[in-house]
Amino acid sequence: MINLSLPESWMLALRWLLLLGPVCLALVMVRLRHLTHRAQIAGLFAFLYGVAMVFVTHSFAVWMGWWHYGWDALMVNALPADIILGGAILFGPGLYFSFPKTRPLMICLPIILGLHGTIFSSLEPLVFAGHHWFLGVLFVFATAHLPAIYLAKWTEADTHLSYRCTLLAIMTGGMIFALLPSLIMLAMGGTWDIFVKPVWMTCLVMFALSVSSLIGLSANQTLCLQGGGTPIPLDPTIRLVTTGLYAYVSNPMQLSAALGWVILGLFLQNIWIMAASLMAWVFVQGMVRWHHRHDLLKRFPTGWPEYKKNVPEWIPRWQPWTTTAATLTLSDASRSHHWVASRLGAIDSLDVQWSDHRTACYDNPDNVYGFRGTCAIAAAFVHVNFAYALLGQAWLLIAVPCSFLFKQVLRRAI
To answer: What is the number of H-type helices and E-type strands within the chain?
Structure first.
């Protein structure tokens, strides 16, 4: 560890260098590399992920006492706004465009050990290191910086779709539940006084937020599994998705964001955060409808108009809209499968069949990804009504990633 005692003016210059340096690096690399359209999208995704997660992780580090920042100028939630932006640019498009063929860990490791590990505790009054500050550095790199570079790498190569959708979901959650509310409270007033609220109220709000988040996360998962793309129009699906929660509402992600802001605004007693839900409505009226007209309608001229006519934008249908019947195959020897069949009842859009095979199977002509076991039963619940659909999608959010990770570990072990 190098202990330095530098003038305060040098620390102020360093603060600006941490913003202007990454900006210049990114601009130079864009000029030199002659980036493809795919690479530009990759850099943008890495930057957006970085903005959200640098803010979230540094806020958590300050709350844990790992470090805190000096000065009061250009601060957002006790964090320097210029350092948030500079970190997102550097550990995103900046370093990825500079070293596109290098493993992200090999890019970040020298910075962790060579820079943070040597002079981090000597940067007062820019930053004051607390106890276990190096643990905080590792946490920030593991959750904010490394994933941002990986997201850029996978996006440009168009690989690891499931991981990309996961990182984009994390990015969106950070924007909706942390960054945007903090900016609103900075401009209009308000604080994150969540620890002074009654426990019962906090638990109730956490449950309500989990339900609203479920709508957006399950939509993201369906686009990944059945659409073969991400929820971001710049990296769209290759197939029209009309199943899952998309059989009930056509804009589940915007609905999820709007509900989240209303719930969070009520909890914090901040009308301006509640009013942010209007942003989702404006976004749908403008950007989303423009995307529908100029992208989805052109790519899916035979399927999109009929879907749009039957599925609402905001208020979910109680019964799903379907064009074909799915098939759920259950084991005739299983009591639990007979109980499931009794709970499902007679549904026009679901054909229940029986076989000697002990594993349940769900196949839908409108899907490309079939479900087996408990996931098959969860997928069948989507055909009942909106409440059952939420229960089924909640299980799919847990079971599908666990099954995927188990297969990945098993494949590497073999």
So the answer is: 20, 8
For CA atoms 189, 130, 87, 48, the dihedral sign is negative
In a domain, 285, yes or no: yes
CB–CB of 294/306 below 8 Å? no
Structure tokens at 374: 């408990």
309 and 333 belong to one structural domain: no
CA–CA dist 93, 146 (Å, integer): 12
Rounded to an integer, what distance in angstroms lies between the CA atom of residue 351 and that of residue 327? 5
| 183 occurs within a structural domain | no
- Kindly state the tokens that stand for 50: 């970085």
Closest CA to 247 of 299, 295, 303, 307: 307
**Do 236 and 150 fall into the same domain?**
no
Measured distance CA(244)–CA(224) in Å, rounded = 12
**Based on the domain organization, do 358 and 235 belong to the same domain?**
no
3-class SS letters over 265-325: HHHHCCHHHHHCHHHHHHHHHHHHHHHHHHHHHHHCCCCHHHHHHHCCCCCCCCCCCCCCC
Does some domain include residue 179? no
When pLDDT is cut at 50, 70 and 90, the band that residue 288 belongs to is: low
Domain range for 284: 189-323
**Do 3 and 135 share a domain, yes or no?**
yes
Do 357 and 301 lie in a common domain? no
Same domain? 409 vs 290: no
Q: What is the pLDDT of residue 4?
A: 59
Number of domains in the chain: 3
Which residues on neighbouring strands pair with residue 330, listed in sequence order?
Answer: 354
CATH number at residue 198: 1.20.120.1630
Residue bearing tokens 């990944």: 224
What is the C-alpha to C-alpha distance for residues 93 and 44, in angstroms, rounded to an integer? 7
Checking DSSP bridges between strand 127-129 and strand 67-69, what pairing results, if any? Answer: antiparallel
Q: For residue range 74-100, what is the model confidence (pLDDT) as tens digits?
A: 888 889 999 899 999 999 999 999 999
User: pTM to 2 decimals?
Assistant: 0.91
Compute the distance between CA of residue 382 and CA of residue 363 in angstroms, rounded to an integer: 13
- Find where tokens 């007033």 sit: 189
292 falls within a domain: yes
Enumerate residues 6+ apart whose C-beta is below 8 A from 178: 52, 55, 56, 59
